[in-house]
Write a structure and sequence with these properties.
Layout lengths: L2 H21 L7 E5 L3 E4 L6 E9 L4 E7 L2 E12 L2 E14 L2 E5 L3 H4 L2 H7 L17 H17 L8 E2 L1 E3 L3 E8 L6 E11 L2 E14 L2 H11 L1 H25 L1
Parallel strand pairs: 2-12, 7-8
Antiparallel strand pairs: 1-3, 3-10, 4-7, 4-11, 5-6, 9-10, 11-12
Length: 253
């Protein structure tokens, strides 16, 4: 979808939200949100993409948007120097770690709600419930492993380092965007959009987002996962063939 089409679509939907906010100011929903596209298509030339969220609220308040990728297990390795050589000497497996995580809000989240509310909704990296094995008894050790996990995900561009800004106009219309890097994992994502008043979430909406490989990239991905043994054999054959061709060309020259 090119920029002109996106801009027209955004203007049309925004106009619809404005009309709804004016005509139905007393609706108990309080929040209406949408996004620019429900599908992020990963092709061979995919270089990242911005996903736009926008909508309207029925009056003053703070808007918070949390975009979260599918959960999965994540391992963290600890390196130590043994006999002058850096080696992996410890590892920790986390359960239910978001593959992608980013937050946007109208103000710093600490000013919007207290820690208990933010933790219950898992808003903010420090409030994520990153599950560790029950054998980890020391809180200090657990915090060190969690901090290492977050650093690793941030280095990969999959956990946002900073809070994104939600722009609120006339206390009714809002918009924000999240950047999905080229390394973004495929799967079904969820965006949680909250309207806060008086430190409490008075309205919420869940919006699905699919990140999927398409075209040749998707065919290769499915082939590799459905027939891993055959895929490995084909990869080896192609590697040998490429090496033989390169040898023949250099020998001729």
């Amino acid at each position: 979808m090119n920029r002109l089409v996106r801009r027209r679509l955004f203007s049309l939907l925004l106009g619809t939200f404005v009309a709804a906010a004016i005509v139905l100011p007393a609706r108990p929903v309080g929040l209406v949100a949408d996004l620019s596209s429900y599908l992020v298509a990963i092709t061979t030339g995919f270089s990242g993409e911005d996903v736009l969220f926008f909508g309207a609220v029925d009056g003053p308040g703070d808007v918070v948007v949390v975009l979260r990728g599918p959960d999965g297990e994540q391992q963290v390795l600890r390196k130590s120097r043994v006999a002058g050589i850096w080696m992996n000497t410890a590892r920790m497996s986390f359960r239910q770690v978001p593959s992608y995580y980013a937050v946007a809000s109208t103000r710093p989240i600490e000013e919007i709600a207290d820690r208990a509310v933010l933790r219950s909704l898992e808003i903010g990296l420090s409030n994520l419930r990153l599950a560790l094995p029950a054998a980890i008894a020391s809180a200090n050790i657990a915090d060190e492993w969690r901090a290492a996990l977050i650093r690793n995900k941030q280095a990969q561009g999959l956990f946002a380092r900073e809070l994104a800004k939600v722009t609120l106009r006339d206390e009714r219309l809002f918009r924000t965007s999240f950047y999905l890097p080229p390394t973004v994992p495929v799967g079904y994502y969820q965006a949680q959009v909250y309207l806060f008043r008086g430190g409490q979430a008075v309205s919420a909406q869940t919006i699905p987002l699919s990140v999927s490989k398409v075209g040749l990239e998707a065919d290769v991905f499915l082939f590799a996962h459905r027939r891993p043994s055959l895929y490995g054999l084909v990869a080896v054959i192609f590697a040998l063939l490429a090496g033989w061709i390169a040898h023949a060309v250099f020998r001729r020259n």
